[in-house]
Amino acid sequence: MSRWIIPLLLGVIVLPCSAERVVDEPTGVSFEHPFDQYLIEDMSQGRALVRMYTTPDHTQRVIIMSLPSAAAPEGMDSRRTTIAGLGGPDYVEHRYETATLAGLPAHALEYSAQGLRVLEVGAMRGTALLIIQVAAPESMWEDPDQAAEYRAMPDTVRFEGEMAPEAEPIAPDLSTPDEVRAEWPARAAPSWRIAHHDVRIRLDPGAGSAAVEDDLTIEALEEGVDAVKVVTSVVTDVRFTHEGADLATVTTDGSNASQHHEVTLPQALDPGDTVTLRYTARAQDYFQSIPNQTVAEISVMGQVREHSSYTSHVLYYPVDEGNDATVTLSVTVPEDYVVAAGGEPLGAEGGGDGTVTYRFENTLSVPRLLPFAWAAARYVVRSATTSGGTQIDWYGYEGEDALLDQRLEVALQAGETFEAMMGPLPWGRVAFAHVTPEEREMGVSTPGLILVSDGFFGDFGDLDLAGRSVNDPEVLNALIVVDELSHQWNAYAVALPNELAEGVATFLDLLWLRDQAGDETYRGGMAELAQAYVQSRALGQDVPVASPRVYQSPIYRTIAFAKVAVVLDMLMQYLGEDAFFEAWSSAFSTLVGARPTYDEFFRALSDGAGENLTWFEEQWLLRAGLPQIRAEVREGELILEQVQPQDVFVLPDLPVRLVAPDGQIRDLNLRMDQRVIVTALEDGLRGSEVIVDPTKYLLLEQVSE
Fold this sequence. Notes:
The protein is α+β, with helices and mostly antiparallel strands. It contains twelve helices and 39 strands. It folds into four domains: about 1-160, 3-Layer(aba) Sandwich (Protein Transport Mog1p, Chain A), CATH 3.40.1000; about 190-460, Sandwich (Immunoglobulin-like); about 495-620, Orthogonal Bundle (Neutral Protease, domain 2), CATH 1.10.390; about 630-705, Sandwich (Immunoglobulin-like).
């Protein structure tokens, strides 16, 4: 969804504040800090340096930003426009005026939004826009002395040392579609698979611990299978047995607290043979926090805590590469807790020892990105069913009845949209659970269970979505429900490549928003996404969506979340909505239970559309960049030239507006499939201004040089 604008969290340091100046070495800036104690968070992304100094309770902050000029081509004027677009309906601009910053000509922007009053003073320093931001709740600015201190802080800024040299230009990625295909990991046919898990986990929220058992059934797919390799994470004291006897196991450490186990089977298996192993493990402190370089607001992948226990990415039971086994899951908790999980609930049974065990069954064998998850807390539950028969269960804390009803309504609306577009889910139920991570936030879709944290649990009962930004925090409270629910279709019913699934989810978010708030809001959201992608290209190398290198790019978020959504909107425009939705529905019906490549997905779309869409896939997803078009009227001719370093982009229906000197307007629709196209004009249009894509429906840049 719209998480692409949130910068990366790279580190946090707590320091006391003294009378001395604070020197921020990465930006080459020093200043007098207005807080008694502060945290330092490095939120830099690619070539954009973003350094936040915040009070421990995060209510007051000073942010030092150094942005490449290409990310704000008109300096603070660009910043002002961006902030106004993101501020939401309560955005109020108090002043925008000339100022100075450490002796440089600057502009000061003071505004209110989302309960904060913010002062930004920005100046061009070399080729970078340097911005000093001071922000605090409106109530704190009401104290005249405090407000004066905030407003004086930018006046204390000084530059330290020499200005950093101008960065080298970012080299364009010129990979061809075939070169990108060669980067895809080979898919070797497995010699065995886990066919079924019978997982039993006992949680002790007060102690933060967990104990796990799994009876896993191994099925051979080739002759002579005598060992298997599986992965776990976080848990310790891992043991594999068969009929009470220990099995020889070689364990090696992997990344992110994972362990790889090579287990020798009790006997070699031939195709169709099965054997059931017993796995046991425990976690004295069930907790995993991983700095996430692509989705920075998510950090805690699993925790067992008294108020909120959950797991999303933790491999608490052994997983094979295919991760497509059927699962029976039993979760034992204290009797005043309720467990949420995916799959069909089989009931709850008291243990006679102050505990209760909740059981769930998942009978479908489909590939999964993540293991089966659970959440446990003192939950209340709200339930409803879509017209297509999908049961939606919302688990929340006591006293959240109204908030749960709001989210249940959104889930029903979105579920019915998705059923119409992609058919019914292969399973009949999706659960949502409110969780509270020890650190940061959580919004993630796991098989049949979606986890949503406090930061996305605001009240949106009276929210008017019309004209709202997709990055508005109030809108995000609703959109995260839509976004994560869509992944049940695009990441689990059909296991699309993850980066493609993220962009598909953003596209579906905006389709839902269009249903609720109209086409103008939808088009405004698409324009935001296109702008976010185009501007981010100044921060780091743009790479093809379908390249595995996208996960190393500092602009991963705008490539995956933003570019893909805009590209899908363009495909819908090209085919026409009826034909697009017919092709989309056909592709998902064909691919249920599959893990398609880009080529396989577009082959299914092509079959549904009745035309070959490989050209579209290759130029937008298997190549980097976008069309950069130079346009001019010369000697009675309209001349359009694609000047991007990548190959020509085929634009079947390129809208061009000519504005003649006398004000006459002429709209043209042209096919551009060459570097240069020339169109003869009638006399009255000589000397016209040329606007390429005046409605901003396409992903392109009009350039002057």
